[in-house]
Each structure stands twice: as structure tokens, then as C-alpha cells.
């Protein structure tokens, strides 16, 4: 069975009220996420999504608790081991990832994910058995 991780930004696009300019990304992210069977999620991703929904979308704490409960039921919750931060450092050094992105990639690798869906990293990059896919790559071409 394929194991898939979905980066923070895609969760945010799927859950937030979209600006008119983000409607295509909103719909694509919703379709992607809701078509997946138990995508991998980490406490970091839950925390980042929560912070953005509270700050940018003015979600209530009640809405947030409901979402967190739904994520814990519908997703595979993965908690990284101790060497996770060291592996993230190696990834930053080798690939130039941001601090937070390197932690998500290290988590996806530690969980033996086949695919990491992310808008922020190099589309098609393969790191061992993990492939990073930008699900919006086709959308960008359609708008040109």
C-alpha cells in the first residue's frame, strides 16, 4: 500500500475559505486530500495548519478541536523518533530545504512514505524512495 504525506500548505488550501485567486488550488487540494485513504500527518503539520487557521482564517478553538479530532481519525498520525532532527539537518544541508520543510521531509522518510505532496518543494524530486509532487504543477500550466 502506498503511504502518502500531505504538506501543511495543501491542508490549509483545502480547509481555508479561498480568496478568488486561490479557488483552483482550494478545489484541487480538497479533491486530492479527500480522495486519499488515510494520508500521513504529523504533529508538526497539525500544529502548523492550526496556527494558520487561527491566525489567517479566524477559526474558533471549538472549530479547531473538531478538525484535530477529524484528522486523528481520518489520517495516520506519525510521531517521529529522536534522530528526526538530525536527519532534517542532513536534508537541509544536501537539498537546501527550509527548516520546517526539512522536518516534514524527514518525517515522511521515517514513515516510509512513497509520496510527499507539497507546493513548496521541487516538483519531481526523489530522495531515496520518497518522491515530492506539486499537485498544482498542472494548474500553473493551465493558467498560462
Automatic annotation (TrEMBL):
Transmembrane segments: none annotated. Gene3D superfamilies: 5'-nuclease. It comes from the Bacteria. InterPro entries: PIN-like_dom_sf, PIN_dom. Residues 4-120 form the PIN domain. This is PilT protein-like protein. It comes from Candidatus Contendobacter odensis Run_B_J11. The lineage of its organism: Bacteria, Pseudomonadati, Pseudomonadota, Gammaproteobacteria, Candidatus Competibacteraceae.
Amino acid at each position: 500500500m502506498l503511504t502518502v504525506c500531505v504538506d501543511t500548505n495543501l491542508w490549509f488550501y483545502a480547509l481555508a475559505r479561498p480568496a478568488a485567486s486561490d479557488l483552483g488550488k482550494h478545489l484541487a487540494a480538497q479533491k486530492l486530500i479527500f480522495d486519499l485513504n488515510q494520508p500521513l500527518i504529523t504533529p508538526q503539520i497539525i500544529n502548523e495548519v492550526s496556527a494558520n487557521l487561527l491566525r489567517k482564517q479566524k477559526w474558533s478553538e471549538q472549530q479547531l478541536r473538531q478538525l484535530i479530532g477529524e484528522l486523528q481519525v481520518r489520517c495516520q498520525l506519525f510521531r517521529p523518533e529522536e534522530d528526526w532532527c538530525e536527519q532534517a539537518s542532513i536534508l537541509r544541508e544536501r537539498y537546501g530545504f527550509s527548516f520546517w520543510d526539512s522536518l516534514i521531509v524527514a518525517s515522511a522518510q521515517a514513515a516510509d512514505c512513497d509520496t510527499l505532496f507539497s507546493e513548496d518543494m521541487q516538483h519531481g524530486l526523489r530522495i531515496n524512495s520518497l518522491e515530492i509532487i506539486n499537485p498544482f504543477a498542472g494548474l500553473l500550466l493551465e493558467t498560462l
